[in-house]
Amino acid sequence: MASVSRRESRAGWLFLLPWIIGFLAFTAGPMLFSLWLSLTHYDMLKPPRFVGLENYREAVRDERVATALWNTAFYTVLHVPSQIVLALALASLMRRAGRAAGFFRTVLYLPVMTPPVALAAMFLLLLNGQNGAINEFLGWFGFTGPNWTTDPAWVKPGLVLMSLWTVGSTAVLYLAALTRVPLERYEAARLDGASPWRQFWHVTLPGISGTVYFTVVVNTIASLQVFTEAYAMFFGARDQQSKEGDAALFYVIHLFQEAFGSLRMGYASALAWGLFVVIAAVTAVQVRLSRRYVHYEGERS
Amino acid sequence: MGGRWRTAVLVPLLLAAGCGGLGADPADDPRALVTMGFGLPDEHATARVAVFRRANPDVDLRITEGAFDEQQFLSAVAAGEPPDVVYADRRKLGGYAARGAVVSLADCVREHGVDLGQFREAALRQVTYGSEVHGLPDFSSVRLLIVNNTAVREAGLDPAAVATSDWAALAGVTDRLARVEGGRPRRIGFDPKVPEFLPLWAKANGVELVGGSGVDVRLDHPKVVEAVRYTADLVAAQGGWASFRAFRDTFDQFGAANQYVTGQLAAMAMDSWYINTLATNSPDVDVTVAPFTDRSGAPLTESGGQAWAIPKGARHPEAACRFLVTMTATDTWVTAATARRDALAGAGRPYGGTFTANRVADQRIFDEVFDPRGNRVLERGVPMVLALQDQAFALPPSPAASELVRAWEGAVNRVLTGGQNAEEAMAQAQREAERALRRVGGR
Predict the structure, then answer these.
(1) Contact state of A241 with B413 under an 8 Å Cβ cutoff
(2) What dotted CATH number matches B143-303+395-442?
(3) Is the C-alpha dihedral spanning B87, B89, B95, B98 positive or negative?
(4) Residues 6+ positions from B276 with CB-CB distance below 8 Å
(5) Which residues of A60-84 are buried (b: 16+ CB within 10 A; e: fewer)?
(6) What residue range is the signal peptide (chain B) (predicted)?
């Protein structure tokens, strides 16, 4: 008996081996290497020189780190709730679509397939403050739209607006979760005279809280790492710095500039570990809160 | 059978050894010559490469097409597997020379008897570090003013009134030329092209942003601060930066309905290559090409363009040296210019000349090959570009080049967006620049 289980566990390890090798070579290895680099000065041309915690001390004093952290936090606080509210609204609508749900699901998910750089190029045109389609649309209702792409105060809201383009990926998750909420609960609630709002608050939301929790965590991590679209829109052109007075300088963009613009691999590694700690802390808080607000099927609450 | 077994054993071994393929590294081939940052978009590239291939049939030239990618290049150098030749912006290459990522060409130049005197001074300055040349300059552009005659005359002014010598007068002219309706620009009167052209505006006011050895920065000099304030005020008076920039973003710069044709712009400071773009897309547009001047009225311009260099650790430095000497030689340039002219003539289009950093080549190209076919943009613009080429200045290469540019461009942006005044912004830029230089020095 014991030998069978040992043989099984050996086979298990053998099957896991490709993943373990991949993990060690491509994830854990580079992470450890960057941890070591974060304690050095390294410009890729000369060998790394050990400097202890100097990079971390500098990061704490770096004015651009403060700007970048503020921008990133601002974006996250705006992006995550709007993404979730809109996704939930769309999923609720799709739930009522009946037989056409499959069609709408596809249509809603299609934008997620757009390559991020193409998306950025398109939104630079749509968001243009002078003749962009979005301001044109606002103009129909008598609003004068802001300069989304050039006014520092509007750059981040513009990016949040753009990020809603990919709301479909969250919406399909909610749709799946909504279909799993038992219909009897709604019936019971209706019998008790609950309004649609109370039904949503006391039946729907607790029923899908696991999915909401998951999307909050994943979206938060993604927005703390926002890079591609913002970089393509405001930093991409050759030799071009952000013309918007650092309004779109997100943390990872700053990190990237330090690494590949200034060749400061050691400092950039320290910044990367800083972000890792921030994300870990934010996620830990979310896990803590989840114990109070998230219910799983079959769990005693 | 034995062969199949050997393959079966060898393939996983090679893959495990990180070879990532079955052949040996192409760079190890003694006949190979690998380039980076260079492509073959037109005859300027293909005809010159053909000249090299004819003269060096034994060299297996491998052109990795695509624009220069800093990250790709530096990781290749760091990994000890650099290309043999790299092609990049001279401002960048100067910084790499200062950091030791590209090697000195002193021996190469001596062995091949290259006369460095034929290269334009400013272009050479950009690739000369520690009194040794580290790159051979390729194309050369200058910066100047392009004035929309129609728009200026419409405002009741003479195109000659758009001049950078009298700053107060230029502000007045800009006011008259600009059209702002309800806070939204309808026409830009004069675009000073900041932050990109700040080195030019500062020099016009008497100060070079970076001094002799590339480590002496003067970003907070009162004259620089004055230039920043002046240019930012010009923008502020034309609807403010956010609207100004958003309006500029709507221009069809590379199309037939460009800002000169539509009248969305009256005048701007610009790189000289744009004259060719205008000539191709809107040959009938009525423009004046004038020099940018300092405040005493003397023409002033900044040199730009690319250069060739040999990275540290290149496997085939001798063939690489032959390659870059051939690519920048006078005869090669003339061959390429002729091929370009003939190709354009085949399409019924004029040839506006090729502006190189090689003075002798330019002279022959514009004497023997230039073929404007009555295109008035070219007939007016080209002589001005030629006259300015030898008057250009360039900032010296600096080991912290990209940080310095980031510092001053960031500062100008903060002034343009109203986040800081010019003194505060440039003082901060100076601190950032000094810190960057200290860091590089301490490495």
Answers:
(1) yes
(2) 3.40.190.10
(3) positive
(4) B352, B378
(5) eebebbebbbebbbebbebbbebbb
(6) 1-24
Question: Residue with structure tokens 């960048």?
Answer: B92
Q: Is A151 on the interface with B (CB under 8 A)?
A: yes
What pTM value is reported for the model? 0.86
Looking at residue A203, the DSSP 8-state letter turns out to be: I
Is A152–B439 a contact, with Cβ atoms under 8 angstroms apart?
no
Residues of chain A with C-beta less than 8 angstroms from the C-beta of B408: none
Please check whether residue A88 lies inside any domain of the structure.
yes
| pLDDT given at position A239 | 43
Structural domain includes residue A113: yes
pLDDT tens per residue across span B42-96 = 899 999 999 999 999 999 999 988 888 887 888 888 888 999 999 999 988 888 8
CA distance B291 to chain A (A): 24
What's A279's domain CATH number? 1.10.3720.10
Q: What is the pLDDT of residues A85-140, one digit of tens each?
A: 999 999 998 888 878 888 888 999 999 998 988 999 899 899 998 889 999 999 99
Rounded to whole angstroms, the Cα distance separating B274 from B72 reads: 29
d(CA B183, CA B175): 14
Contacts across the A-B interface (CB distance below 8 Å): 97
Q: Which two tokens stand for residue A66?
A: 């403060």
Q: What is the pLDDT of residue A284?
A: 94
**Contact (CB, 8 A) for A267 and A258:** yes
Residue A129 at interface with chain B, using a CB cutoff of 8 Å: yes
Q: Is residue A224 part of a domain?
A: yes
Nearest CA in chain B to A42: B443
A21 close to B (CB below 8 A): no
Q: Which domain holds residue A149?
A: 54-293
Closest CB to B406: pick one of A49, A152, A261: A261
Domains B21-140+304-382 and B143-303+395-442 share a fold: yes
CA pair distance A162, A123, nearest whole angstrom: 7
Q: How far is CA B162 from CA B173, B175, B183, B273, in A?
A: 7, 12, 24, 20
What whole-number distance in Å separates Cα of residue B272 and Cα of residue B414? 28
Contacts of B90 in chain A (CB under 8 A): none
Question: Measured between CB atoms, which of A45, A150, A263 is closest to B241?
Answer: A150
Angle at B340 between CA B339 and CA B343, to 5 degrees: 85
Contacts of B325 by beta carbon, 8 Å cutoff, 6+ apart: B108, B109, B112, B114, B136
How many separate domains does chain A show?
Answer: 1
Rounded to whole angstroms, how far apart are CA atoms B207 and B195?
Answer: 16
Quick check: helix, strand or coil at residue B43? helix
Model ipTM over 0.85: no
The candidate with the shortest Cα–Cα distance to B201, out of B220, B175, B229, B177, is B229
Q: CA B71, B72, B73: angle at the middle one, nearest 5? A: 90
Q: What backbone phi and psi angles, to 5 degrees, belong to B63?
A: -95, 115
HEC-encoded secondary structure of A7-65 = HHHHHHHHHHHHHHHHHHHHHHHHHHHHHHHCCEECCCCCCCEECCCHHHHHHHHCHHH
CB atoms A44 and B78 under 8 Å: yes
Domain boundaries of chain B, sorted by first residue: 21-140+304-382, 143-303+395-442
pLDDT in tens, B182-222: 878 999 999 999 999 999 999 999 999 998 777 889 999 99
